[in-house]
Design brief:
The protein is α/β, with parallel strands linked by helices. It contains 11 helices and 11 strands. The protein has helices at about 5-15, 20-30, 45-50, 65-75, 85-95, 135-145, 165, 170-175, 190-195, 215-225, 240-255, and strands at about 35, 40-45, 55, 80-85, 100-105, 110, 125-130, 150-155, 175-180, 200-205, 230. α1 packs antiparallel against α2 (about 20-30), α4 (about 65-75) runs parallel beside α5 (about 85-95) and α6 (about 135-145) packs parallel to α11 (about 240-255). The longest helix has 18 residues, at about 240-255.
Length: about 260
């Protein structure tokens, strides 16, 4: 149980407002997870522990399984983000949850919970080296927006034409955290890191010709960055990049007095 729930429960028990039997039932009902369809145990306390609800990784799950999990989250009054789904799964989710939004580029489906309708908190800028990196960058953008951040996308500003990036310096300077998605040799995060005063989360993408080794070359290049504010997540892991950027940006935003501390 979440500590604040335990405190309230113990206070009620000590005052005689509830019986020991009722307290035991209450504790059992707040195990922190909910069984869904016999194939999932949904973490319904993650929002209380971490600030954000559980995210559903759609790859490898059936449409029926994903719908069941999303419905279970909805029963606990939580928004939901589903990643890595195809159009067939998205069509079923859109029919079951007409208030949700499918992003065909990011391959995500998102339902906005009641806790995510307040003012934006924190500023995230998502940058792509090329247009081919957009699916990964869009996953990062949707994730940071799900955490109720103010997100800006700068697409196709890679090192092959550096003047395109230099034209956007003001958007880098105002960010609390930056996500950079790049394939090929993965050089862009180092350049962005050298131009920015905030953390840069580098996301290597599997875009490139043979010697890029499906993103391995970009990953190694980013890990060897000489820009000291660059950290790296896994290949094509747009969700991870957007999530970490959202965490950083929200703390900065809350420190400025933005929002009310809630997330989607």
């Amino acid at each position: 149980m979440i500590p604040k729930h335990l405190a309230h429960l113990f206070q009620a028990l000590a005052s005689g407002a509830i019986t020991p039997e009722a307290a035991a039932r209450e504790m059992e009902s707040r195990l922190g997870f909910a069984e869904a369809g016999g194939f999932a145990h949904v973490d319904v306390h993650r929002r209380d522990r971490c600030g954000f609800p559980e995210v559903v990784f759609g790859l490898g799950k059936t449409a029926e399984q994903i719908e069941t999990i999303v419905r279970k989250l909805s029963e606990h009054d939580q928004g939901c983000l589903v990643t890595r789904i195809d159009a067939t799964v998205a069509e079923r989710l859109a029919s079951a949850f007409p208030d949700g939004e499918y992003n065909s580029v990011a391959r995500t489906f998102r339902r906005i919970g009641p806790e995510a309708r307040g003012p934006k908190v924190g500023r995230v800028t998502v940058v792509t080296a090329g247009t081919s990196d957009l699916p990964v960058a869009e996953e990062a953008r949707v994730t940071a927006e799900a955490w109720n951040c103010d997100v800006t996308l700068l697409a196709d500003v890679g090192v092959a034409g550096l003047h395109r990036l230099l034209h956007q310096l003001d958007r880098l300077e105002t960010a609390d955290a930056i996500v950079v998605a790049a394939g090929m040799e993965g050089a862009l995060p180092s350049v962005v890191g050298g131009l920015s005063a905030c953390p840069v989360i580098a996301v290597p993408t599997s875009i490139g010709y043979g010697a890029s080794f499906q993103g391995l070359a970009a990953l190694l290049g980013m890990l060897n960055s000489c820009a000291s504010n660059v950290v790296v997540v896994n290949i094509d892991a747009g969700f991870n990049g957007g999530h970490v950027a959202g965490l950083i940006a929200r703390r900065a935003g809350l420190a400025r007095g933005e929002g009310d501390g809630s997330a989607a």
